[in-house]
Fold this sequence. Notes:
By secondary structure, the protein is mainly alpha-helical. The chain is built from eight helices and two strands; from the N terminus they run ααααβααβαα. A two-stranded antiparallel sheet has the order 1-2. 20% of the residues are buried.
Amino acid sequence: MATKEYTTKYRKLKQVYERITGKEISDITWYRTVSTLKRHFKLDVSSPSALLIVEAFADLKRKYAAFSFRTSDFEERWALFKDFYESKETRYTCKEFLDLLAVRLGIDLKDVPRSTRYYWFERAGVPYQAEELRHSKDLALVAFVAAKWAINRRVKPMKSASAEVLVLAK
């Protein structure tokens, strides 16, 4: 049974989330969101850090609406996000960041259309200026978006056909 204090804080966190995202969220969806935040961010509704966690998550959802913990590639994308977010190197130029990102993702920047690179920054809400220094925490969301692109471009193994299908093809 939840205490009155817990319930009040729970409702206030929901209101903060809705204010930041600019959208209302149903009670069941909020319940699932809190459950997910507990799992991935160690959220404790009654702790002082709960507000910071909800604000950060709501900001991610506002900037990148497709952000989801449920996609199959989430763990890889999340690890890359956390690496940049928690980086000791705090500032990169956009050019340095893209070079580092290409190495981390195992891609050649020559294969990435220029418009796609701009799209990564646009989706993350970070203006692209090649020589301007950016904080690694700001670039973490760019890495998250770029990782989706890189993962989708990887060669996927072909499924082999069954013997029955091969016989029918003759």
